[in-house]
Amino acid sequence: MTQVNIHTTNGSNFAIAIDGPAASGKSTLARLLAQRLGLTMVNSGAMYRAITWKVLKEDIDPHDTAAVMALLERIEIACGSDGIMSTIAIDGVDPGEELRAEKINANVSAVSAIPEVRRKLICLQRGYLDHSSVVMEGRDIGSVVFPDTPYKIYVDAAEHIRAARRGDDGEVDSIAKRDAADSNRKTAPLIVAEGATVLDNSDHTIESGVDAALEILREQGLVIED
Ligand code: CDP
Q1: Which of 48, 79, 133, 166 is disulfide-compatible with 13, CB 3.0–4.6 A?
Q2: Ligand 1 test: best mutation among 29, 103, 112, 117, most atoms within 8 Å of CB?
Q3: Ligand 1: which of 139, 156, 165, 166 to mutate, most ligand atoms within 8 Å of CB?
Q4: How far apart are CA 79 and CA 120, in angstroms?
Q5: What letters, b where the CB count within 10 A reaches 16 and e where it falls short, cover 95-127?
Q6: 0.90 surpassed by pTM
Q7: What residue owns the CA closest to ligand 1's atom 20?
Q8: Is pLDDT of 7 > 60?
Q9: What is the mean pLDDT of the chain?
């Protein structure tokens, strides 16, 4: 894939926010956009999944807010990047593929609804801009993490298409249940952020989705040279 040159008005680091429901295709889109634009792709969902992984590993009830908060105090969360993609390790261990396990899918919404968990991770998410410009994907990137960025896309797709995509990936994931929990929680619910453009990914191929996103970013003022 060819990389394009990108220019910002003031030369400082910036964020492209990609939000949307489960299995809408935002990870793939964010990864390819980052690759095209030469930016770091940050998967904020992996951070919530990693905390959930540790919670379950320690046999903590994900709904026991006090116990999850106590765990947060004693673990070391290392967020970094391999130059292309974000990385995460908890107490020195990268959970890798375990982050996509069924039990993580089933419990991550409970853990991510805890305000203290969000506060801690948002701080780490914002920290990425100290090092590079990013394409960050998640649920609240345009609404809470980087509300002032002009570059915001909300990726959606019809529910049956999203469910089929997840099944094709071989994952057991009750996406409707997770979407309901993520959209109805009190803190940072999944919404179309102010200023975001909705990209309906239902009928796009991967490539045409990337092209549509680049067009949206141009309209939002990002100067992209082919
Ligand atoms: O890949 P998929 O879109 O299914 O999920 P993900 O992006 O890995 O996110 C997993 C879960 O983390 C979501 O269902 C949310 O509960 C939570 N999350 C969040 O609350 N805020 C974010 N910025 C990203 C993820």
Answers
A1: 133
A2: 112
A3: 139
A4: 12
A5: beeebbbeebbbbbbbbbbbeebbebbbebbee
A6: yes
A7: 112
A8: no
A9: 93
